[in-house]
Write a structure and sequence with these properties.
mainly alpha; binds zinc ion
């Protein structure tokens, strides 16, 4: 079984890379994305780090029961972003584009 998979992988790899550059697909559900899509039309997964940051803000605002544009939320997000960039990026990766690690 493993040998069969390996023998398939090598010849397909280059072709797969080409197809990915032409047709971007969702890293979560595999849906084909149109150019400029910031969120997957299939499952809603953010496809850019900006979209992920936006989604994170939405989730936090909803969770805290405050408005998305509440200055306290903006300040909290900015603080995490500036003071804990690693934690921030880890969070974005969790909800955002998984392929771009
Ligand atoms: Zn998707």
């Amino acid at each position: 079984m493993a040998a069969a998979v390996e023998s398939l992988d090598t010849p397909l790899a280059e072709d797969a890379v080409l197809r990915v550059t032409v047709l971007a697909t969702c890293s979560c559900c595999g849906a084909i994305l149109r150019e400029g899509d910031r969120f997957c039309t299939g499952c809603g997964t953010p496809q850019t780090m900006e979209a992920a940051a936006e989604r994170l803000g939405d989730l936090l605002a909803k969770d805290a029961g405050i408005a998305r544009d509440d200055p306290r939320l903006q300040a909290a997000l900015a603080r995490v972003r500036n003071e804990e960039p690693e934690a921030w990026n880890a969070l974005l990766k969790k909800i955002g584009p998984r392929a771009t690690a």
